[in-house]
Recover the amino acids of this structure.
């Protein structure tokens, strides 16, 4: 058994000081007691929270989920540990049927041995609206087709789609009837306010990168965003890189969605890399000054790190650390129906130690320290 001491422990309800976290592969308990046989990790005043969960990430460190290789998944999983991310959804792109099937099969067959946990697949497209394709290649957009993805549904945990397209209603209703565990999200959509509200009744319960790749929020035509912000049952994810959404919206979004707001990165293969030329979904992407754009200027995902998203949101709002951290732990875990994302007894010992600037110092997955910068583990035995 090990113990983390001298940490400011962020639970899903409060920040605790003077307590210790006891753990093996799973969390044992948070207590003021410190057994003499425990091996001690001195946090030296750092914050301790559950590991971060990114439900929308395409790539990192030069790798992309659509590379469809075990090496790519391993590379992504290892690189994002430095951002405090201990779990993620491997997110696909709108590409050819062969490319999508290869990526899905790769995740389904992947035998993970290291890095952040791959929770499954976030299928972003190809069932989207060509009008709002964003950085998705419009030539590969398809009408909703359950046959394409059905062989891989044990791995698919989230699907982004445009419910207003032909066959959308039937597709959503089929998924809700046969795969109720899958999180259905409206995104890359031109649905009206009324169409969006109707899709929530069919089974949509999430919004992919709110405001981006959807019709604008207008006072006479509220559109997708207006419908999502109004419905308390619908969660919303945002890319808090100060580029995709103006920070002046952050406080308002939290007030409207205090328990339904999720921070994501939507990072592409240039994540955790230098500026330069990359690709996303087979299209050339130029990364410069923290922005990733196609050659025509369209935003192409991001190079955001999840700990940076937390810092950006914190600096532009007046919310507390508990509420902030819940956006990358408790809330996404609950949306996926997982016992994860909280420092609770018998939950996996996935957690992160970070400082007041949200710099990550140590990351743990299943109780194993997988990223260490400057702290050493030492025994409490005399």
């Amino acid at each position: 058994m090990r113990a983390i001491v001298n940490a400011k422990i962020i639970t899903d309800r409060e920040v605790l000081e003077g307590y210790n976290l006891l753990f093996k592969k799973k969390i044992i308990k948070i207590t003021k007691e410190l057994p003499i046989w425990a091996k001690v990790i001195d946090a030296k005043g750092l914050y301790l929270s559950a590991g971060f969960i990114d439900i929308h990430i395409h790539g990192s460190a030069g790798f992309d989920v659509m590379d469809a290789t075990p090496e790519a998944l391993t590379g992504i999983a290892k690189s994002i540990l430095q951002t405090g991310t201990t779990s993620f959804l491997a997110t696909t792109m709108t590409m050819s049927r062969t490319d999508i099937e290869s990526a899905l099969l790769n995740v389904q067959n992947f035998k993970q041995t290291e890095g952040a946990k791959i929770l499954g697949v976030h299928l972003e497209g190809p069932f989207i609206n060509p009008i709002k394709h964003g950085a998705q290649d419009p030539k590969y957009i398809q009408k909703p087709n359950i046959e394409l993805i059905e062989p891989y549904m044990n791995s698919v945990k989230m699907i982004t789609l445009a419910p207003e397209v032909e066959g959308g209603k039937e597709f959503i209703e089929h998924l809700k009837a046969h795969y109720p565990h899958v999180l259905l999200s409206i995104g890359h959509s031109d649905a009206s306010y009324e169409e969006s509200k109707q899709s929530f009744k069919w089974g949509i319960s999430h919004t992919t990168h709110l405001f981006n790749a959807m019709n604008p929020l207008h006072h006479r035509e509220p559109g997708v965003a207006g419908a999502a912000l109004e419905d308390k049952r619908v969660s919303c994810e945002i890319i808090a890189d100060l580029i995709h959404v103006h920070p002046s919206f952050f406080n308002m979004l939290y007030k409207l969605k205090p328990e339904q707001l999720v921070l994501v990165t939507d990072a592409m293969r240039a994540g955790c890399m230098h500026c330069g030329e990359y690709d996303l979904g087979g299209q050339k992407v130029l990364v410069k000054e923290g922005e990733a754009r196609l050659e025509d200027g369209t935003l192409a995902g991001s190079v955001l790190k999840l700990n940076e998203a937390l810092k950006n949101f914190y600096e532009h709002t007046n919310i507390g650390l508990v509420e902030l951290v819940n956006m990358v732990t408790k809330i996404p875990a609950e949306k996926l129906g997982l016992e994860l994302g909280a420092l609770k007894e018998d939950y996996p010992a996935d957690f992160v130690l970070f400082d007041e600037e949200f710099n990550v110092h140590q990351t743990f997955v299943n109780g194993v320290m997988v990223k260490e910068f400057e702290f050493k583990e030492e025994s409490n035995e005399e």
User: Anything to note?
Assistant: Residues 2-49+343-379 form a domain with the Urease, subunit C; domain 1 fold (CATH 2.30.40.10). The chain is about 20% helix and 25% strand. The first strand starts at residue 2 and ends at 5.
